[in-house]
What does this fold into?
Amino acid sequence: MTVPFKERYFEDYRPGEVVEFGDYLVTEEEIIDFARRYDPQPFHLDKRAAAESIYGGLIASGWMTGSIMMRLLVDHFVSPVSSMGSPGVDEMRWLTPVRPGDRLRVRLTVIDTKRSQSKPDRGIIQVQQEMINQDGDTVMSIRGLSLSKCRTPPPSS
It folds into this structure.
């Protein structure tokens, strides 16, 4: 039996497990607002300048795409009973521009799990996260790590 994501502890994640979740509609207003605040490059801010850029139109900041991915992860995947955050990511790629009207979802693959030797009350879960648009194109990929509490006590020494 599979434990629901919101109730999972470290022991419940299985290498090779693949899940998809989320449905997020990207709007022009959101792209421009995010760009004004955090990434004010012309192809994120101005439709005319964006049309003349290599992108041929307005695109979302990659950092906005990452923020959307994080929101979908928290809403659908991250366990509030065991999540201890993330020690970081090893690889992040923006593969296809995100445009107004795109609908995004996440595909997550559990790559590996390893209980901490130095702090055996927790474990590291290595994941491959992909943001997929409505056409099935991967727009962003991240290989990252999650830190999770263990359900069972550490082994006795």
Residues 5-149 form a domain with the Thiol Ester Dehydrase; Chain A fold (CATH 3.10.129.10). The radius of gyration is 18 Å. The chain has a mean pLDDT of 95.
